[in-house]
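Researcher: Please predict.
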Amino acid sequence: MHFGPLPLSDAEGAILAHSLRLGGLAFKKGRRLAAEDILALEAAGLTEVTAAKLDGGDLAEDAAAARIAVATAGDAVQVAAPFTGRVNLFASARGLLRLDAARIDAINAIDESVTIATLPDLAPVEPGQMLATVKIIPFAAPLTAVERAERLAADGLPPLAVLPYRPLTAVLIQTRLPGVKDSVLDKTVGVTRDRLEALGGSLVHEARCDHDEAALAEMIAAMIGGMPLADLLLIAGASAITDRRDVLPAAIERAGGRVEHFGMPVDPGNLLLMAHCGGRPVLGLPGCARSPKLNGFDWVLQRIAAGIPPGRAEVMRMGVGGLLAEIPSRPLPRAGIGTETPRAPRVTALVLAAGRSSRMGPTNKLLAPVQGAPLVARAVDAALASQAAGVIVVTGHQGESVAAALADRPVTFVHNPAFADGLSSSLRAGLAAVPSEADAVVVCLGDMPRVASAVIDRLIAAYNPLEGRAICVPVIDGKQGNPVLWDRAFFTEMAALSGDAGAKRLLGRHVDRLCEVPMEDAGVLYDVDTPELLARFTETLALNSPGPSSDASSPA
């Protein structure tokens, strides 16, 4: 890869290394220079630019990051679209992250251009939570380095996966001493049930007996013999276990069980007991398990639920990071202090399908049949196939017919009775229906049938308001197209617009927060406004060779 000053005569196709702002000209770092860009730079008086130009041994940053991410990702891992050489990986299920740390380290050691950053091994994760990010440091990586990373990732199971929690069933036995209130035991039942249900499991039965070895042994035998559907036996003693010969471990052995390990290097949670009886795992709970706060019992329960129950050796290795007690130098979770766990952005797709199709004559173009489905279905299906968290369709002109044509699709319909007032009225109606938890909206046009789901995914991957990418616009050959992704911060401003021009007039006001996302698909510039364009589109589909159109849509 060449990096450095390039004469404009040799700069077409090169990647701009630094942002340029000259008069009315503004090119951002990472822009691939097209022929039109070269002419504009020459007109601005430049003779050279600092840029990167790839050679045959290089793989562009997005392609390199995508290949490594796909090779690395295993079960229950969602791979986002690449952007600026970065691909984020997210959990698609609740469970534990499982890493092959040695292979991750080996991939990071291949070449300085290739990096993977992850959460710790066995971290509990939620759906949508970020697990890892693959980042190519420069504008390209050596193809040989990417291929070597793929080989390492393919050597066995993928080195990064999520182990989903299984729906565990459990039985709880509690022992009693004189003076122990039933309310204390009732609270333990509720806390234990909540713990299990948080992992997708359930507490199927609870029983109580005296804190006595013989009584507890009899209860254990009865529960083991009568719990064919339960996966786990939990025992909460009225008094903490202080020795392997104490009431709980002695009762387990008396009932025919085997104590595997007592104690763990996790605080709170030191006094956990692990055993087996009747072919099932048995846990003697530490006193802290009566509280909902995180403790060592949670770590063991998570691993059992994820299908990787820890043995004696695994428990004894939990000491590093095992200090869970709140201390003055650590923020207190119950005080609401701390940072939010990184997660996938929640982006709602908004498909505007309310227009009058005035240039189509008497025909509503959105309902025109194309290969057995209405034209509007192509835009809606692309949104549904994308990583958008939900799809809202705004209807207006012939709204009942449009909704009926899409009735079998899992979308939310919003009718705009003021559709004759222009695109802005439909935008306003759609924004009002966007869920409060959504971070952003991607505004799609119902008459743009060649926008693929990958385009929407790439916009979502580019979106990062903390890094100044709050508005994401697809660009091809220097031309801005649709759909456009908008951060929630702009909703009020967008809702205040009027007329038929949509939100395009806002782009110039927020150049500092605008991100142009390069695309290879000319579908972002292609809409169907006339009978001639509809006929041409239908013909190209029939030939299975859709051609580009000169009809370009302005950003909505």
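Model: The two ends are 37 Å apart (CA to CA).
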